[in-house]
Amino acid sequence: MKNRSEVERAIDKRMGIKEEADPSGSVPVRVGDTVVTPRGEAKVTGITIMVPTPDGEKELVSDSCFVDQQAAEITLDNGHWAHNWQISSINGEPVR
């Protein structure tokens, strides 16, 4: 993923997340992607990653996340939001 901040790369490294989709099949979802969720098809307008810290959990606004590797809330242009694990397809391609 290009144009990622140092903070995002550091968090990914701490959580053991690789830059590209890993061989286990986890797929990246990005702002602007069209996704299918239980609430229907919509475009991703925002991503908030829940980052575990020693003091609890903190939120990090990001432009991408992995479907199966991070706890994230995906904001959609249809007025709804979804957890990243609820996404069943990205840009017409099945996730699983």
Key descriptive features of the protein:
10% helix; 96 residues; two-stranded antiparallel ribbon; seven-stranded antiparallel β-sheet; mainly beta
Q: Helices and strands in order, then pairings?
A:
Layout: H1 6-15, E1 28-30, E2 34-37, E3 40-53, E4 56-62, E5 64-66, E6 71-76, E7 81-83, E8 89-90, E9 93-94
Antiparallel strand pairs: 1-5, 2-3, 2-8, 3-4, 3-6, 6-7, 8-9
Distance between the termini: 21 Å
Which secondary-structure class do the elements indicate?
mainly beta
* Structural shape: globular
Beta content: over 45%
Write up what this structure looks like.
By secondary structure, the protein is mainly beta. It has a domain at 27-91. Helix content is 10%, strand content 46%. It contains one helix and nine strands. The protein has one helix at 6-15; strands spanning 28-30, 34-37, 40-53, 56-62, 64-66, 71-76, 81-83, 89-90, 93-94. The strands form two sheets. Strands 2, 3, 4, 6, 7, 8 and 9 form a seven-stranded antiparallel β-sheet that branches. β2 (34-37) and β3 form a beta hairpin. The protein is globular. The relative contact order is 0.24. The mean pLDDT is 79.
